[in-house]
């Protein structure tokens, strides 16, 4: 990923510079949440936010490897390695592929995304079910499992955005719970919290993401991974740095330390060896053909918007996007008038997640309570005739 560009506006098409300037002006004038702002079409990604949970498993062999760990410590290390490997896809892949960070399409309530990674070399099949469970604020719930390996990840994410110091600050709300069947019986749980984001490079017309502050992975056995993120500052330094400290149950002393660049490689400071390396190819999620998808599935719903963005036909992209958004506004008005609410298909909302509360107390999580969306077990891959390979 390139560092801050040197040529002003180099990522903004010449014909769109006035639109970009207006967008920056509108950002600077908002004192609260920015989620209601409409971004100019050329800065949009052709991918909906509903697809983003697929980044959790674009290296499915690392997810499956968690099940092979034989001790509590080794499982915590395997979970940390897998988690760090997900960050590149989530936060820099569009920059590297599209030239700068792009704003994902804001999903509609009820939007769906299904996918899987096939069983290769005995790693087991990994399935993904995603549902947009709220539009304002946008909340995405997801469930990922590899039943042959005894792994299940359930979580949700939302964003609150604000403008400060020339950057967009994104507070990620939500968490994930990873459940692992352990050798000899029983289960181990991991609470995974989410880092904050800072979107820099706005004035150059070439936005990019830095992760900031800290996130945590707390095991039910007591092992804790505390991950600190640092980015490129005004006076130098490297982009995308992280340092993770693993501490054993009942102790604040570092037992293992891992550090490096989360978008390329990092080291295990105890052994000096490579801890993670995501410079090689990732594995895209497998999805159905567009014609075989339900109308609510993300790639079918946004297909004409995505086509316009990819082809640089921003007029068509904007028109098709407005068509979807206007239909959604009318649907919400009709529901309000009828006194009904949209029923969730795959998830059930609960006010407080007991696993978050229990594991969060071990490292004094803030906030101390969070809601959750519990998977109903009724996705397309849970049917009796669903493929297993």
UniProtKB/TrEMBL annotation:
Q: Name one GO molecular function term.
A: oxysterol binding
Q: For this UniProt entry, what's an example GO CC term?
A: cytosol
- State the similarity comment: Belongs to the OSBP family.
- The molecule here is called Oxysterol-binding protein
